[in-house]
Amino acid sequence: MATAPLAETQPPQAGAACGRKVVDEVSGWLRVLDDGSVDRTWTGPPEALPLMQPVAPYAEPRDGHTLHDLPGEPNLRVYLPEVAGGEGVGRLPVIVHLHGGGFCVSHPSWLMYHHFYSRLACAVPAAVVSVELPLAPERRLPAHVDTGVAALRRLRTIALAEDGGALDDPAAKLLREAVDVSRVFLIGDSSGANLVHFVAARVGQDGPGSWAPLRVAGGIPIHPGFVRAARSRSELEVRSDSVFFTLDMLDKFNAMALPVGATKEHPFTCPMGPQAPPLDSVPLPPMLVAVGENDLVRDRNLEYCDALRAAGKDVEVLLSRGMSHAFYLNKFAVDMDPATGERAQELINAITSFVARN
């Protein structure tokens, strides 16, 4: 059954748990109630709420792009730069975005994603297709991986004009006419960056013949939420400088999202750990891994990069000096703080260069 279009999603600020007992929670973000329901009313600092406001789609260009929602299985949000279909312009690469939120919260219509990915679409230029992912604990992993793979299958179907009635959707037609599905790049923030690894591996295991003409040409995990049994809890806590992202929050999200009974050594949160298949056996495209110098999980990110290199994988690393987890999604910091704005532009430049070379 198709879910509601992206634009109808409301920010997590209305509706509270009333008369029900909270049996589990992630401070500020969500509460699991004794009837099994989940309350995602934001109870953290109110200044964060503007970043969670949904942005409605628009067919008339704004800031060099248009924005379209494509309901279906799964729901997709499509950013198209104005160069799409322009005279003398070739087909655009596709950047498929897998949003973060600890597998448990957030939505691709939120301003925090919109401001970065609309800008990225114009800079590359590329069509950016953001995927609405399921949320844990209602749907645990591997549901998120399955949805990422389903989004690629839907993109392939649209490109081949095999999407049945959905082909009448103007967004599907625009997408089909604008893009080159032989150049698809997976990008993800935080837990979405974890998904980049597993969705790319799933496609690679199927072999190119199963996906042609679609080809995953590269992966861009940004600040992946990789964890494992910490060698030193203090080495992580020293960089826990954000009230929105702490080690305890990460542990809670993972406990709600991982398969029942799994520990943080599970491959979904530690693909370079002892429970994961050897990385040299995992088919992966070239990877650009973005790491924040002050990120809570910086060491795990760098460990992942080292493991990829040791396995003979093609991997580049961008280290954002002085930056913490998902800094580039904070529109207000990017706009008002020169250092944050500069690091965000460096990230966009690195992605642009990576896409051009692959």
Automatic annotation (TrEMBL):
<dbReference type="InterPro" id="IPR050466">
    <property type="entry name" value="Carboxylest/Gibb_receptor"/>
</dbReference>
<dbReference type="InterPro" id="IPR013094">
    <property type="entry name" value="AB_hydrolase_3"/>
</dbReference>
<dbReference type="Pfam" id="PF07859">
    <property type="entry name" value="Abhydrolase_3"/>
</dbReference>
<protein>
    <recommendedName>
        <fullName>Alpha/beta hydrolase fold-3 domain-containing protein</fullName>
    </recommendedName>
</protein>
<dbReference type="InterPro" id="IPR029058">
    <property type="entry name" value="AB_hydrolase_fold"/>
</dbReference>
<dbReference type="GO" id="GO:0016787">
    <property type="term" value="F:hydrolase activity"/>
</dbReference>
<feature type="domain" description="Alpha/beta hydrolase fold-3">
    <location>
        <begin position="95"/>
        <end position="328"/>
    </location>
</feature>
